[in-house]
Design goal:
There is one protein chain. The protein is built from 3 helices and 7 strands. With about 120 residues, it is an alpha/beta fold. The strands form 2 sheets. Strands 1-4-5-6-7 form a 5-stranded mixed sheet, sandwiched between helices. A hairpin with a 2-residue loop joins strand 4 and strand 5.
Length: about 120
């Protein structure tokens, strides 16, 4: 089983236990989330997982690259974070423990706020 798929299933199970529901994902047989188009570049993004909690939709993006491309990560975060805010939710990045510091630095350097970062152990 692919690593992203394993992470997605574990994340979904965890979120279910916390009261999230109505899951959408492009990584497995769930209903697919809508694609979100960047106003600037017209590039499309689809979050790895969308889940509803209370009155909002929360977006989750699994970012497991050892050396994420900063420019593309920043654009993806801006687009998905803006979309999540419009749905009364929040974007959450899911990153390996060893990449946490680097991802936080990228977010802070680019003044990306209101983005959650969940650490996972992929080893």
């Amino acid at each position: 089983m692919k690593i992203k798929q394993r992470i997605l299933e574990a994340l979904r199970d965890y979120l279910k236990s916390k009261g999230y529901k109505r899951f959408e994902s492009r990584l497995n047989s769930m209903e697919k989330p809508d694609e979100i188009v960047s106003d600037e570049t017209k590039k499309t993004y689809a979050p790895d997982l969308v889940a509803q909690h209370s009155n909002g939709k929360f977006l989750f993006e699994i970012e497991i690259a050892d050396d994420p491309d900063e420019e593309s990560l920043v654009e993806k975060c801006r687009v998905l974070s803006d979309a999540a805010e419009k749905m009364n939710g929040k974007l959450n990045l899911v990153v390996p423990v060893e990449n946490y510091g680097k991802v936080i630095q990228i977010l802070n350097t680019n003044k990306l706020e209101n983005i959650g970062v969940l650490q996972i152990n992929v080893r």
